[in-house]
Amino acid sequence: MTTKTEDWQSELKKYEIDPEHKAQVREKFNFRPFKEAAAPTELPKNIVGLEGLDFSKFQEGPEGLEGRKELAAQLEEAVTEHGFFKILNFGISQEIIDQILSLSQGTFDEPQEVREKFVAGEHNLPEEKDKPLGPIRGSGYKPLGHWRTNGIPDNIDIFNFRHFTHYDTFFNRTQYPEFVKANLDDIAYYFNFIHREVLRKVAILLDIILELPEGTIYRDYFSVKPEQLTNSPDGFGRFLLYHPVSEDYKKKTNDIWLSGHTDGGALTFILSQPILSLQVQDYDTKEWRYVSHTPGALVVNIADQLRQLSGGYFKSSVHRVVTAPDNQKNYHRNTAIYFSNVTPRAYLDVDELKSPKLKRLGITYDKSVERLTAAEWDDLKGEYFNNRDKNWYEKETIRGRESIGSLREEKIPAVGITTGGN
Ligand SMILES: [Fe+2]
């Protein structure tokens, strides 16, 4: 079995927004194409060569098995070395990608008084009232400047979308600003596609790597349970807009836009964007390397939950965002991210995966470490990200597990000048 695609698209169609209303709201909000930054004039030498998985080669069914095995071999190298890879031809057209970037831009065009009415974490669902979602994980806007780097307020706009796999909750039980509400169907389509098509295929490749029957990981850890909101994988989508920063900001933060960290969830899917700013840290040398831009690709990284679930076989990537190089410094860094989580009640315990491969490698659960569910882990990690002071940990363990919330940064050499790396 390579799993059957859930019939999510026809169900989603029932929630289509009236096109006339959508057009009116788009006009009112000056909906327009997002202007991407020009390519960097000079590429630094310390660029990481990420594995690019071409998903046009991913065919379902027995006849596609050889192709899937090849993709799995490619993926295994990436996820065991640094936890980062790209997916090319992931199934969404450039037109839809462009629309998502325009929607992200429009979401942050809302005036301050509207943004204050939809601060993330302030309108949680009754089911989530005990969950410490805060301004970083709740549905809505993170207040601009919430985080501090060396005491300097951040310049990053965030809008989170929770529960997009639960259509009634997403469309009817969650509060949104007018612009977002009028475009919810397009937003839901994008994020559902990433979860139900792209993530499902990645999970199948992970099955092959771990010598599990194809479909196992998606079924056990990622399948959507339509009637069970709190027992379904509860990741979230995010629009993200990094605003240009001043010279003063760059000096005082050592050129940090977002400090080094590992993500808390399972897998993170980011739309590739042209500003040269995302860096990944080499696990052995600790050297930072730039991730290059591939138009139309998804940049994907392994996060803490999959690291734990695989007993450390998959690496939770350490990454950060540095400020834009000179020829891109006046542009916005605009992207959409999906932070996936595994099913909240699942234990992050490698023994439960029952992987013949990991067993052969001698990877078993460390019994000296208390077992945690994905939900418990998510809440613990969320505390890092909700903390205002972004520069307070060198490295940390949470209940005996390695994780990075925010790295203290030293001076970063200017972009375009090599750091002595290759
Ligand atoms: Fe991240």
TrEMBL record:
Q: Where is the Non-haem dioxygenase N-terminal domain?
A: 53-164
Q: Where are the transmembrane segments?
A: none
Q: Which InterPro entries does the UniProt record give?
A: DIOX_N (IPR026992), IPNS-like_FE2OG_OXY (IPR044861), IPNS-like_sf (IPR027443), Iron_ascorbate_oxido_reductase (IPR050231)
Residues in Isopenicillin N synthase-like Fe(2+) 2OG dioxygenase domain copies:
250-329
**Pfam families linked:** 2OG-FeII_Oxy, DIOX_N
Q: Which domain of life is it from?
A: Eukaryota
What is the protein name given in its UniProt record? DEKNAAC102993
> From what organism does this protein derive?
Brettanomyces naardenensis
